[in-house]
């Protein structure tokens, strides 16, 4: 009898081990930034939650520091399912899904609370649904924060001071057109850009204060203006086909984990922003904390009537929804 029980026990153990091995999965997740950055904080928290909730059956491998290429290249790899997931700045998405650019419309949001209300609501869900047409599963919005202008040529208080500055922008049609309208010479570049700033290939760049601090751009940029011209979100995404092929329970666990990771990172960014700014001052940056935003806004509003937004009816319609919801 004991031999029978032992044989049955061994058989059950073999079945369990086989099932566990069959379930074991590695998720490859790509970001362009380094440990300590906003994107890495999202990825790291997601990894922690998934591995804990799956009891180690699912592991998350984070490919950071642009080891997989720039953000456009990572998105292409996600489309091909060479990489399963990514935490990607919203700007590069507009080359894949035109509607996405509405979230980056200048001076759209009034505060971080305003951002959360809109992007965690129906309009945010509509954007996440829209990116499915390009083969992406949108899981959550995390953030870099509100973008500000830095340069190494002169203080910038009003939009007139931007004239002629060679500014690095993301590989995004919207960001390129915005800085053209504002009077700069926009230069699209992937990340990172420290060497280009150090060598004077570009005069400046625009990013949230957390990015300027984490990447030590204060070493190669003298002037910072808190223009807050665009809210910079990440979209936390997966390959749509891969995601849809997972068991529903696993899909829910991944979705819940990414949303929690995104909220955790948003809170980190918002709670530390004042401290980041103080550190930039301590490092010697000359900061204009109250630039003439109205002068920037008056120029930037021209974008609404440009082909960038009017050419595609669905993009124009979505922008109208966002402008109505945020006015």
UniProtKB/TrEMBL annotation:
The keyword Signal applies. The keyword Transport applies. Residues 1-24 form the signal peptide. It is found in: Cell envelope. Keywords: Signal, Transport. InterPro entries: DctP_fam, TRAP_DctP, TRAP_DctP_sf. CDD domains: PBP2_TRAP_YiaO_like. Belongs to the bacterial solute-binding protein 7 family. This is TRAP transporter substrate-binding protein.
């Amino acid at each position: 009898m004991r031999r029978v029980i032992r044989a049955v026990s061994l058989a059950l153990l073999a079945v369990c081990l086989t099932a566990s091995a069959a379930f074991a999965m590695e998720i490859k997740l790509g970001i362009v930034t380094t440990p300590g950055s906003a994107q890495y904080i999202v990825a790291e928290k997601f990894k922690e939650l998934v591995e804990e909730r799956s009891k180690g059956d699912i592991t998350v491998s984070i490919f950071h520091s642009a080891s997989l290429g720039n953000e456009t290249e990572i998105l292409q790899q996600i489309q091909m399912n060479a990489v399963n997931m990514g935490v990607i700045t919203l700007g590069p998405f507009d080359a894949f899904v035109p509607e996405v650019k509405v979230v980056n419309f200048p001076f759209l949001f009034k505060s971080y609370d305003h951002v959360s209300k809109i992007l965690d609501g129906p309009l945010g869900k509509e954007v996440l649904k829209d990116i499915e047409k390009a083969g992406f599963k949108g899981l959550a919005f995390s953030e870099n924060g509100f973008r500000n202008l830095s340069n190494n040529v002169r203080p910038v208080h009003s939009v007139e001071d931007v004239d002629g500055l060679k500014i690095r922008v993301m590989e995004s049609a919207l960001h390129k057109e915005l800085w053209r309208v504002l009077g700069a010479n926009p230069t699209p570049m992937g990340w990172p850009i420290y060497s280009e700033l150090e060598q004077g290939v570009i005069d400046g760049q625009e990013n949230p204060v957390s990015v300027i601090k984490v990447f030590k751009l204060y070493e190669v940029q003298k002037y910072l203006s808190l223009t807050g011209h665009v809210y910079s979100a990440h979209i936390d995404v997966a390959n749509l086909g891969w995601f849809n092929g997972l068991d529903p329970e696993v899909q829910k666990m991944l979705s819940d984990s990414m949303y929690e990771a995104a909220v955790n990172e948003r809170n980190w960014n918002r709670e530390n922003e004042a401290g980041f700014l103080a550190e930039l001052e301590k490092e010697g940056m000359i900061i204009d904390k109250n630039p003439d935003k109205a002068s920037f806004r008056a120029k930037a509003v021209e974008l609404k009537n440009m082909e960038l937004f009017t050419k595609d009816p669905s993009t124009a319609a979505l922008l109208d929804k966002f402008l109505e919801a945020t006015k």
